[in-house]
Amino acid sequence: MIPGGIRNPRQMEMMMRRLGMTNEPLEGVEEVLIRLKDTEHVFQAPEVSVLTVQGVRTYQIVGNPEVRPRTTDGSATAAAAPGPRGPPEEDVALVIEQAGVSRDEAIEALAAADGAPAEAILHLLSRRGAPGGE
Q1: Quick one: pLDDT at residue 70?
Q2: Three-state SS at 109
Q3: Which fold has domain 23-77?
């Protein structure tokens, strides 16, 4: 409780400044995600304030979170997270050039060879040389 009763906002701001505190709104926040071991708390369009006290920043989030389970294999978050998929482009190009196959065949061969380009090329070349394909 504040000594002396209720104060107006201007007095509160002056007192905070004297104590070395600042409180600023963080504009343009679209989403806040808090990941726990078993769940995720997702705040859509929350109000976020940054309180700085003696150089330490504390974030205050105001909103209603959607609480959803977090899978242990990461499939729920991995599907939403953008990122590179499949083998590196250099490896795909190398397999295409050396084995003379299509892009899809090169990617399949790299996946079967656990990403090893040399093994993928050898597999494709040996398959081509075998009678009747595989």
Answers
A1: 83
A2: helix
A3: Ubiquitin Ligase Nedd4; Chain: W; (2.20.70)
